[in-house]
């Protein structure tokens, strides 16, 4: 059933009434039906432009992980490539070549043993890339089970309940049982100790998250790999890891080079990242890489010939824009390793500095400080009972800032937090302005006698921190 909105009946009966534009006569345009006749392009532009002024300012959106700023040259290249369809590799061979170059650059960045043999592809985002990684895990498990003459009808995937919502979708769409490790106490993500507890012979893999959307923390991929090594030595179960590096895979290589989380760990079979998050591209691109040909079953790969060469493709989407691929290559070329390091270090500096200053205000306690990915979460201190984090979020929204407030999943639904995502373009100066407005909000909230808002008023912009539906292990 289509989504219903308050006042739908009234709104559907009202046409748009347009003031004279560029000396033309006033018009009436239906809101929810095609107009009977065409109009001047400048008039159509003005109508849409005026309505879009009601949107929020993207640069003040501290909920989203997605890039909201790009250099003018990157935007120019994207405009020049707006009509290019990424699937038409024979028609746009150079765009396909740039995609291949990006894959090889990422393979080297993530320490593939033989980067030239690493297989990867661009996607519409990290969600599609994650699903491709999960699908490859499932197919490898099925092939191994069939070769052993064993059933393949009950695959499961183990992960922390803090994973992004795309993994719940993957499990539903591709008929895999999701086994979520719940949060306990002050443990808010998967750990080496908890990673193996739900694994069995039907486990297709373990998902480790490099940069949790709930609090910005890294999961200990190396520790999880070691725990799975131990499990194999004790039981014979050989369970691979997929690293969901939607954010962290473009942070850790530059800021935490000694951290082992990537293809340096033999148990890591595949990695996904989001080019339009800390890859610094405007929305519309992700990346999935496998350590070698063995990690991606050949029967999942389609081959496209272009310029006499072979381009293996593996994707859920068919037609999609090539402009973001070009923008990704532009960023790689323009910034290089040192440029990315400087950008990401600035983001981390802004995040950790802002986190310290928010903690110093008094009412708040940090869960994380932005020292992993430049994202941090904070809650109200014990004893603050006259306002809620949802009141704070609503107050900041009145100033144009989108700072999400949400509750954690089982077993910490008692914990309500605020989260700030620092991206390229959110400067120290903007952090100062946010802090100024936060002080103003707190001064007003201190006059309340009780909270005015709760989780029901939080809105729908948790951006990855949505509640999952835990299921009993062993049951679909």
TrEMBL record:
Q: Which InterPro entries match?
A: Glutamate_decarboxylase (IPR010107), PyrdxlP-dep_de-COase (IPR002129), PyrdxlP-dep_Trfase (IPR015424), PyrdxlP-dep_Trfase_major (IPR015421)
- NCBIfam families this protein is in? Glu-decarb-GAD
Tree of life domain: Bacteria
UniProt-listed Enzyme Commission number(s):
4.1.1.15
Q: Which Pfam families match?
A: Pyridoxal_deC
Q: Which cofactor does it need?
A: pyridoxal 5'-phosphate
Q: Which organism is it from?
A: Streptomyces griseoaurantiacus
**Which segments carry the region annotation Disordered?**
449-476
Modified positions (N6-(pyridoxal phosphate)lysine) in chain numbering: 277
Q: Which GO terms describe its biological process?
A: L-glutamate catabolic process
Give the protein name, as stated in the record. Glutamate decarboxylase
Into which family does the record put it? Belongs to the group II decarboxylase family.
Any one GO MF term held by the record is: aromatic-L-amino-acid decarboxylase activity
Gene Ontology CC entries for this record: cytosol
**Keywords for this protein:** Decarboxylase, Lyase, Pyridoxal phosphate
Catalytic activity, reaction form: L-glutamate + H(+) = 4-aminobutanoate + CO2
